[in-house]
Structures are given as C-alpha cells and as structure tokens.
Amino acid sequence: MAEVAFLLDLEGTLVKDKSYTLFPEALEFTEKLDSMGIPWIVATNNSTEKPSELIEILKSKGFNVNEKKLLSPSFLAVDTLKKEGVKSIYFLGTEKIKSFLRESGFEVKDDYNVDAVVVGRDKEVDFKKLKTATSAIVLNSAKLFSYHMNRIILDRDGLVSPSVGAIATCLSYAGNCPVVSFGKPSKLYFERAFELVGIKEPSKIYMVSDDPFSDLAGGKEAVGFKTVFVLSGKYSSPDILNSIDENLRPDYVFKTIKECERLLK
Predict the structure, then answer these.
(1) I need a surface site. Which of 111, 127, 163, 232 has the fewest CB within 10 A?
(2) What is the pLDDT of residue 156?
(3) Is 98 exposed, middle or buried (0-12, 13-18, 19+ CB in 10 A)?
(4) Mean pLDDT along residues 25-38
(5) What is the mean pLDDT of the chain?
(6) Is 23 exposed, middle or buried (0-12, 13-18, 19+ CB in 10 A)?
(7) What pLDDT is attached to residue 2?
(8) Which residues does 213 contact at the CB level (< 8 Å), separation at least 6?
C-alpha cells in the first residue's frame, strides 16, 4: 500500500484556467507519481463541463485520467439531490451541466416553481436569474445547493470574478437559508476523495491547490489532511495567507506543483 496520496486541484494547479492550458511541470509530476505507484486523483470543483467531457479534455493534454481518477461535484450533486428527494431544479450554470442534470433524471426548469436551486458557474448571471432563484427559495421553499463554495475564479484575461460560492452565499443571505455544497470543502467530497485514492489516514494525504480558502483551509478544517498552496493560479503572492487563521494556513507554499517532488523524498 502506498505511503502517501495526492489530491490535485485542476485550474491553477494542473492547468492554467478555463482554457485548460497545460502546465508542463504538472504533467511531469503526475507521470512521476504514476512511475512511483503513488495514488492521485484530479480533485476539481469544475462546474462547467460534464465529467466525461472533462476526462477527455485532460486525456488530450496527456494526463493519465479516467473515471476513477477524477472527482467532480457533478457526481456528488446527483447523489445528494436524489437523496434529498429533489425532482425539479432551477440551475444557474452552463448548458452542458444542465444537460448532465437532465440526463441524470432531473427536470431543469426556467421558473421558480422548483424543489431546489442549484448554483454552478454562470458567466451570464444577471438580476433576472437571481430574482428567479431567490423567488424559488422564498416563495416556493426550494432548497439551495451549490457546486462549491469558492470565492473567486481566475479568468482568461488575467482578472478575477466572483465564483460559484460567492453567488451561492448571496442567495443564502437573500433567502435566509443554508446552502449545501457538493464540492470542496464539504466533508462528503473529501471522504469520497479518500475512497478513490485508497487511503483514509488524512496525515498521509496532500491536497494541492491554488485556493487557500475553500480547498486548503476548508479542507484542513473538515478532514485534517496536509495542504500545499501553489502560486501558479489565482494568487501569485503568499501574502493572501495573512487573512487565514494561523492554524488553517497551508503546510507548504510552492511556486508550482513541480516543487511537490520534495514531498516524495
């Protein structure tokens, strides 16, 4: 049995952004893990691509990825929504994920008469959509779910915008209701990740990400694994860590994922 395992964030860690531009050193690192027999998975909060399509994108970049080496909130979304008895959804997000939800047996509607509001990555979110979502929560007692709770996302132009978690938090405040997250840093997500890598001891698992809040601090608080903050994505300076409780700050700060090779020695 392997002594350690790695959960690798996608955007900002393995690839640059939504363009999925490869970080060559990331491919080299995963190949090194494979050669050493060290388990790893892509632990992503991606809410724009169908899991099957995301696997094909990663394969086209050279990554040794299959359905057992990718953990997407979409998988947890289906399980959680069905468990909660949700039949109809108002979804903020891409047509690809709308299609995925329909294929999974849910009715995706464009009005507020639904069982649940689900928030994904929606670059065309506007007042009308927020109004419909809020009406579903307040007037129809719809439950609120979010693909993840990330605060910001790095766009292709180098600027950052509110991410899924920011929009979900807005709706939670407006509707005076809790929000249930499918992705990082939910305990459910990380427990599923541990199952995939085959190691349940948190001290033997490294989470590598460019998000020090949801992925790292949130994950450390939820399950207590080792955390690695890389400066190749949203944040190019470790100064951002000053806003995080000292006990939840990353165990390691590296410029890129390549430096994670130090952890293999």
Answers:
(1) 127
(2) 79
(3) middle
(4) 97
(5) 95
(6) buried
(7) 66
(8) 150, 151, 244
